[in-house]
Each structure stands twice: as structure tokens, then as C-alpha cells.
Design goal:
The complex is a heterodimer of chains A (359) and B (758).
Chain A lengths: L7 H4 L1 H10 L12 H9 L1 E2 L5 E2 L7 H12 L3 E6 L5 H13 L5 E3 L6 H4 L1 E3 L1 H7 L6 E3 L1 H8 L2 E5 L6 H4 L2 H7 L1 E4 L4 E4 L5 E7 L10 H4 L2 E6 L5 H19 L8 H16 L18 H17 L7 H12 L5 H14 L6 H9 L3
Parallel strand pairs in A: 3-10, 3-11, 4-7, 7-10
Antiparallel strand pairs in A: 1-2, 5-6, 8-9
Helix pairs in contact in A: 3-4, 3-5, 12-13, 12-14, 13-14, 14-15, 15-17
Chain B lengths: L2 E6 L4 H14 L3 E5 L5 H4 L11 E7 L6 E6 L4 H12 L3 E4 L3 H18 L25 H8 L4 H10 L7 H17 L7 H20 L5 E6 L13 H9 L8 E7 L2 H4 L12 H9 L4 H15 L6 H17 L7 H11 L5 H14 L13 H13 L8 E6 L3 H15 L5 E4 L8 E6 L4 H8 L7 H15 L3 H11 L8 H14 L3 H17 L7 H22 L5 H21 L2 H16 L5 H13 L5 H11 L6 H12 L4 H5 L1 H13 L2 H15 L4 H13 L7 H8 L3 H6 L1 H7 L4
Parallel strand pairs in B: 1-6, 2-5, 2-6
Antiparallel strand pairs in B: 3-4, 3-7, 8-10, 9-10
Helix pairs in contact in B: 1-3, 1-7, 1-11, 5-6, 8-9, 11-15, 12-13, 12-15, 13-14, 17-19, 20-21, 20-22, 21-23, 22-23, 22-24, 23-25, 24-26, 25-26, 26-27, 26-28, 28-31
Classes of the chains: A alpha/beta (359), B alpha/beta (758).
Chain lengths: 359, 758
Amino acid sequence: MNLLRQHAEVQFSEEIEELKKQDSGHLPPNWHLSPQAVVTYLMGAKLKNGFEVSPKYIGDRRLMEIAVATLTTDRALLLYGLPGTAKSWVSEHLAAAVSGDSTLLIQGTAGTGEEAIRYGWNYARLLAEGPTEGALVTTPMMTAMKDGKIARIEELTRISADVQDTLITILSEKSMPIPELSTEVQAIKGFNVIATANNRDKGVNELSGALKRRFNTVILPVPDSADEEVDIVRRRVASMAKTLDLPAQAPALVEIQRIVKIFRELRSGATEDGKIKLKTPTGTMSTAEAISVVNNGLALAAHFGDGVLNAQDLAAGLVGAVVKDPVQDKVVWKEYLETVVKTREEWKDIYRACRELSI
Amino acid sequence: MPIHILGIRHHGVGSAKNVREQLKLLQPDMILVEGPPEITDALQRIGHADLKPPVSVMVYNTENPKQSVFYPFAEYSPEWVAAAYAHQNNIPLRAIDLPAAIGFQMANDEIKEASEAAENPNEPLENEEVLEPMEGIAVRDPLHYLADIAGFTSGSEFWEHYFEKQHFSLHPTEHFEAVTTAITALRDEQIPSALEKENHYREAYMRELMRKAQNELYQNIVIVCGAWHAPALLDLDKTAKADSKILRSLPKTKIKTMATWIPWTNKRLSLTSGYGAGIESPGWAEHLWKTPHEYDLRWLTKVASVFRKKQVDISTAHVIEASRLAESLAALRQQAHPNLGELNEAVLAVMCMGDGIMLNLVREELIVGKKLGKVPDDVPKVPLQGDFERSLKSLRLPLTANAKQYDLDLRNENDLQRSIFLHRLELLGMTWPKRADSRSKGTFRESWTLEWEPEMMISLIEKAYLGNTIEIATQQVVIQQLETETSVGNIATLIQRAIPAELFGVMELLLTKLNDLATLSSDVIDLMTAYPPLVQISRYGNVRKTDLSLMQTLVERLIIRICIGLPNACYGLDDANADKMFVKIGQVNEAILLNDIAETSALWLETLKKLLEKTGISPLIMGCTCRLLLDAQHLSDEEANRHLSYSLSIANTPTDVAAWLEGFLRGSGMILIYDHKLWNLVYQWVASLTPEIFMELLPILRRTFSKFEYAERRQIGEKAKKGQIIDTNTNITTSSSLLDTERAEQILPVLKMLMGNV
């Protein structure tokens, strides 16, 4: 296979099959796995026959339980959170585990129109045949309703408000009227919607009260502990370095720990020991960004450096990740450099590297 | 002659319900509850309308009220239920446990031993909690063993599931049998509990008091005690001999104790106290107690109404959806009914848009609850009042209705103690002591006016919940202020106030908070306000027992922040703010001179220099900056000259010129008279002006100079007649040559004495 990236249900098909075999829980109609098994699929575990299910989400199990329990009710699920907190990742795996299909996806943008959610027309046939079933262009949403599957909407809040509201009928009546054909599509059991949205962006289209009420919201938080975060960064960097064929050496754990520490401290607004409070930058400082800082550093080290990741390679990406607003963030970063980084004996190299870049 | 032992969990709702039912069935003629005998009298008040839970019995050492234990009660505490039953049916009620006095004595002995064992006897720790877990060893909750077998994650979860849930209801008799069986199984295996050592004595004492009740020929005795003790109290006859031996080994004590009721809050119920058992969610427990049916749905409607009160739109549909989600979650977790955890998660997902902040509201209002108990007026005095009166006596400060002035000399020990006491009362918000102007100058003198009004005692009693002594209560006040304070300057003032009150216990908290605020504050003026007092404290402050190094790093960090922020903060200020900034820069500069650390001074001067090179900053500040740099010899004469003539050029607006000059002279004409260097600078500048430009500038200069005192102006005028002072160094050399060394040496011994033999 030469695909750059595979769908979750293909990549993890073996795990899903094993879980199916072992599954003794009650299956809701049209679900491929029982709710308990879906949670196991997401959180990872060793099955009774010794088969190892890899963890997809590293974090609080209770959150995944709320998400899965929501899908068993007739409310839709809204995954909310900062950019880079694995919202889309979780939504893809949920859809893959629940209905064995994560491809029924609608990407929300400012230009997403009603026809992307409800249905469109093939105008050539519409002119030739008039409004018929054949001239109708179905959407992932319609397919999901017909087949009793999970439909996914990415970045729900980027879609303009009037288009968002077309979801209301679908979510409450579970049907999609097609007045042109005097008919409707009624959802089969097993249908539900998972939407993701991020709560950092300014100028997004806030959900209307009516629509909000049809979603149960789960906020995916930033990782709890430093170890958890280091674990996530290491796993992802390793897997990405493989796909990108970076010739550099795998980064030392200490470098990753250092980057994660800087990210965590700036994000939480306090040093790890809790002794010094810090200002927080305007950016999100998400785990995903930490991963990209390390990847950037690796690429720099591979193509322009000596193949070993060092402070110089990291500094450029690091400063770029922190200083998003040239005025406010500069002050934040400078304060952090002078009051925290400078005082750490073993951080001299990164202090110097960042000072040289001084912006 | 039956004895019925009802093993309960303190504040357990299920336990309380079973106790209530069981008492109705048993119809006892005597009820014994766990608790020191000292509280027996206090317990008789339960059932009176004026005593409204949550309340707590406080037992304290009359000599040292700091040593105290609390026995809090809620409406659903099994002991409360039992006492209320006793009151209603006129049955005698007694508390059986080790007397608190003996507990205090044991704690004191332990401290004594510990301090004797150590070579350098450390300061005795004030033990507020008498019942402390076995030192060093973390003892596992014994119920954990059962929980492991049954597949629960914790002992309390196990207990909760089998013994507190109403849907898992046994007949009350069976319930208590099951409890006793479970605990007996654990105790037979010699599994230790956290309070093993104390339990040994306590259970012996309990048995002894039970025998006493038996000997008084009560026929039907019910004992309500913590489940762990239940098996140990079963056999009274066999243990009689061993018990008397154990009881003889108890220490004798002369400690006198008092028991009194004090109002309690739900928040405090959720803390561990006297019994060694606290509950996390008193509000939820109360809900369970009062709502026997459909508790989950009714809970959600309560949550909805809290949200509605706070202007959050929550519809009935929300409640329905939340209830369904809670049920699905319970099913997913294989539970028969949703618990608080599931309900919270459902509320979070359905009503709060996943936002934990809104759930905090529910926690505050409902899960913990804001209930405050009430205690009748005629209960005995509170310890804070006692401590206050004791202090008055020992410090010889009588309460008088007419104002009396006290002039304190802080070098005198008694006066120093008085001063500390009065400073504390002031922080406590008492209006009794009022600061008066001291008649004599000097840092060791203080004057106070004291005028007593009866209302003041009430305000003191109101503060009783803060702590048992004035010191502790004052600390509590400072901590409360601290929590809501957002200004760095105010915290610095608070620190300045806490030092004469000798509240060293909170100093670290204050410093940490200051540090936190200083980091977040983007208000440079605020930081600059805080800096001078902090330097004062760290330089001269009497901060005994406080980590001064922390203070020092804090001060350093503060100046770094000020230096980073200052250039931006000086942009585009209007006149009023520029004036403020001008004053602050002066104050910080002084503090930096006082602090006298080369690195800090260098940083500060560098910042000032940066400031000087910027544009768009108020001329008042520019002038001031120029002058400070000149003083610090960080600016050469030529540079200063350049700045002076640039800023005073005719192209500038007249007001700007006047402001610059004002800033440069820092509002005082004196400096022109005495500082020849400065004089020469200004003189040279005036001399360099062409007559036309001089004429144009004259009104502006007049404006600046007219602010000076008349005498100053006259002297300046006279100096101007003499022209430029050529040799600025002469006055120093001449003065030194005039010195009569012999006579000067004569005063050296006196100077030495004054300065303390350096």
C-alpha cells in the first residue's frame, strides 16, 4: 500500500475484529461493538486471549465513557477543546469502532453550504429528468442516516450559523425532508452525529441555543501529567519520523522532556514545582504543537545540522510556537527566558540558543 | 438484658436511615453513642429547635484552647438521629469514648517525649488534631481488602455500595448484622486500622462505660458507634479483667476541658475532623437524606434551578436528557442506578457544554452546599473570647468605656507584646484599638487610643469560627484577604501590617501570593508601588522566622519585571498618569539605591537609558530619567547637555519644555543651588541661547521656576549673578583641608558607641 495515511478502521481492523470476537456486551442496533468494547478500543487493554489493543486516546477514561454513553442515547456528541487535543482523532476512532466506517465526513468551513449537509442536485440530470431520485446528490449525512451509521462533522463552529441550523431537524426529528420529491429520508437506528469544534478561535460562529441543546458536550483537556504528555509526543514523533523518512537520529528523551516541560509551564502559567507563576502566551501551546516543534527540530538537524537534535535546532521552532503575537507574547517569552530558563543550570544551551534568536 | 450494637459510618445517610428504623423497632431504654463523655451534656441539646445543624461540639482544653477537638453533626449523622430519638422519647443518652482530656494528655506527653528525645528540643508543635494516624506507616483502609475481593476500587466505594445505598435495602436488623459480620471478618484477621493504638484504649473505655450502664440496670441498651468498633464491643464479660488493666495504664490528667456548641458549615463538614471521618459532599448527602424516592431526577431539577437562578437557560428538556445520559453511563459502568459521579458527568455534558467552571457552581451551591448552622444564645463562651480576655489580663489592658491613650515603648517587653496584640486586633477588624499620633518620633514608639463599646464583644464572637486564639484568627483573616486580593501593592501593605503583628505563620503564603500576582500583573505601576516597601522589609525588616532569601529573590524578580515592562508602560500617558509614573520612578530609584545590589542597579540604569532613547514618552518622565542617569554618573556631561538642549529646544511645545525641566529638577529648586555640576549644565544651556530665542523661552522658564519657593528663587538669582562655577571640585578639597583632625578624632569613640562597635 502506498497510501500516505489509512482510515482508522483499516489500520486497526485486526483490533476491531478481535474485540468483536471477545465482545459479550449488549450491542445497540447497528453497532459493530458493544459500548464497553468501544471504550476498550479507545483506551487500549489486554484482552482475555492475550491480544493487545493499543491505546488510541491517552487520558481520562471517564471522558471516553461519557462520549460513548452519549452515542447510545439519541443526543449527538460534540467534542470541544483546544486545537491539538485529539478531537478529530477521537471522533474518527469512535466512528470506526461504532459503525466500522469513519469516512462519512463533512468538513466544516466558512464556505460549507446547506447542500454539503443535506443534499445537492446533479444539474445536468435535473434539467434532463426534472427532480428525481437519480438527480439527487447524497451527502455523507444522508448516507449515514440511510445506513444507520455515524456521521462526522469537523469544525462545526466554522460553518455559518444558518447552515448549522439545518442540523436541527436532522438531530431532533431524525429525518431529512426532500420537498422537491415530496419525500423524506428517515434515519435508521444506529445513526448519530459526532461534531468537533475548537474553543480557542475567535470569530467563529457560536452554536445557536437550539442546536446546542441537541448536543452533549465533552471537552477534551490538555494532558494531565508531564509523563503522559511526553509519552504522547514520543509516540507521535516516532511514527511521523518514520512516514516522513527523516534521516536524523531519534530524539533523546531528555530533549522531548524539556520541550514538554516548557510547553506545560507556559500553558499552565506556573513552573513545574509551582513556585513561580508565569504569564501565558496567546497561543494554545498544545501537545500537537510540541510534536511539531520536535519534528521541525529533527528536520533541521537532519538536513542542515549534524543529524543529532540539539538546542539550536529546537530554538527556532520553539520561539515560533510561543511568540504568536509580536507584542504580548514577546514579553511573556522574554520573562520566561530570563526568570526560568536562565536559572536552570542544565538549560544553558537552550537559553543561549534562544537569546541568539532574540526577536 | 440485650445490648444492640449499631455499626455506622459517621455522616453516612444509609447508616442514619437504618439507625432511625432500628431504634423504632428496638424501643431501647438507654442510648450510647461514640464520643468523649464530656459531650454528653452538650448532646442533650439535640432536638431543641434553636440548635440547627450543621453544628459541631467543640471540646477544648480550658488552659490552652488551641488544643481542641470537634465533633460535627449534620441532620443525617447517625449520632444526631439517635440523639434526636432519645430527646423525643425521653430516653437517657450518653457519650462513651475515651475522655478528650486523656487524649489531650496523651498528645502532650508524646510531644514532651519527642522533644526530650531530641537533643535540641525543638519548639513544641501545637497539636490541634488529637487523633492522628500511626506515624510513618501509611495504613490501608481495612475495608479495602473486602473491596478488592468484591471488585471495587476503594473501601469507601464498597461500603457505599452495600451499606449506604437505599436501593440495596435490607431489613435494618439484617443490615447491622451484615455490618458486624463484615468487620468481624476483618478484625479476626488482625488487619490493622489507621488508629490502632488509640483504638486499643478507646474500645476498652467504651466497654467500661457500657458495663457501667448495664450495672445501672438498663434493660435494653443501644450503642451507636463507628462500624470498626462494633465487633470489639460485643463481649463485655470476658474482657472485663483485661480492660481494667488497660484503663489503669492510661495517663492521669489534670487537664480541664469544656464542651460547647459552635455553628458549623457544610464546607467544614467536608473536612476531616474529630471522628477522623469527613464527607466530600454534604449537600448531596442531605439530598439523599431528604429525598427517599427518585433522588436522581430530583437532584437534576435542583441543579437546573441553581443554573436558572444564575441566569443560565436550562429547559426541562435538558433535565430529561441529563437524566438519560446519567442512566446510560450507569449502565455502561454496570451500576443499577446513577451515582453522584454519573449525575455530575451528565450535567457537565448536557447542561454545561462540557465546561467545568459551571459545574463548580453546582459543587459550591449543591454538592457541598452553603448551609450555616445555628447555635442557641445561651451556650457557654467561645474560646476566642476566652483567649481575648486572658490576653487583656496578662497585658494589663483593661476594658474601659472612656478613651485612654497608651504610649508604648517597643523596647520594653510588655509594651512590645501589647503592640503585637493591638496590631493583631486591628488586622482582625476590631475597632477597639485606634492608632494615635505618636508624640515623639522614633521607630520604637507607638501610640494607641483604646475605647471599649459592648458591641465590640459581639463582633469578636462573630469571628470565633476563625480560630480559637487571637493569633490564629488573625492569621485566618489575613489568609482570607489574601485569597481575594488582586493588587500587588495591597499585598505588600498587608505584609507590612503582618510584620508588627508577628504573624510569621502566614508570611510564606503572603510572599507566594505576592509572587504570583507580580507575575500576572501587567500593571507596572502596581509593581512599582510594591517594590519600595518590599525592599524596605528585605533590607531592614524584622522578618524573623521567615525565609529572607525568598524575599530577596522575590525582590529581584520584581525588578526584572518592572524593567521589562517600564518602557512600554511609559508610552502615551496623559498628564495625570505621567505625574504618577514620575513619582513612582523616583520611589523605585530610591529603593534601588537602598537595596544597593550592583546587578540590579545596572539593570535599572540600563532600562532608564533605553527609556531616554524612546520617543513618545511624557517629557516629565524624560527629564526625570535624564536626571537620574546623570546622578548615577551613567550619562556623561556632554550627553546630558545634548539631551538638555534637545529637549528644551524652541521647536518643542512650551508645556513640554516646562514639564521636562520640572522632571529634570525633580520639582525642587534647591538642587540648582547646591549641585554645581547641574548648575553649570543649565547655566551653559541658558548662555548658549541667542537673545531672540531666550526671549521666546522666557515665559516657559518662568513657569517652571515660579513653582519654587520664594527663597529658592532668590538664591538662584544670586547664584546666577556669579555666573558659572568653574571648579566644581574645589569645594570638596577645600573643605577637607579645613579639617582639624585632632578635634575630629575626639568624637570617634562616641560614634563607635552609637553604631554598636562595628
